[in-house]
Amino acid sequence: MESFELLKSVGLQDMPLAFFHQVQGVLWPELEEPHDILSPDELAIVVQNYRDGGSVRELAKQFWGAQEKIRLEAQPLTPEKEKAPKKDVGSEQSI
User: Which of 25, 56, 70, 93 shows a CA-CA span of 20 to 30 A to 47?
Assistant: First the structure.
C-alpha cells in the first residue's frame, strides 16, 4: 500500500512534519534527532500504533484539539465595519 494511502486510511495524511517528529520521539526515543522522511516500515508502525489506540492516536487528538481551538478563537481576517449612526432619510426636510 502506498505511504499516502496508508496514512489516509487513518486520517493522518494532512498532519504537519512537526507532528511526525513528535511521534518519532515517542515511538523511538533512542533517536537523537527525528528525520523528515519516514520509511514504509516506520509509517506502518505509526499507523498500527494509531489503530491500536496508542500514543500516536493521543498525539493526534491533542493536535486536532489544538487546531479546533485555534479555529474557534480565530479573529476575522477583515476589520469590522465601523458602526456609524444611520441617518433617518425620512426626517430630512428640503429647504
Answer: 70
**Domain coordinates in residue numbering, the chain:** 1-74
pTM of the model: 0.71
Q: To 10 degrees, what angle do helices 40-51 and 55-73 make? A: 80
DSSP 68-92: HHHHHHPPPSSPPPP-PPPP-GGG-
Write the single-letter amino acid at 37. I
Q: Is 74 exposed, middle or buried (0-12, 13-18, 19+ CB in 10 A)?
A: exposed
- Read off the C-alpha cell for 16: 504537519
Q: What is the DSSP letter of 80?
A: P
User: Residues 42-84: pLDDT tens digits?
Assistant: 999 999 999 999 999 999 999 999 989 888 888 766 666 555 5
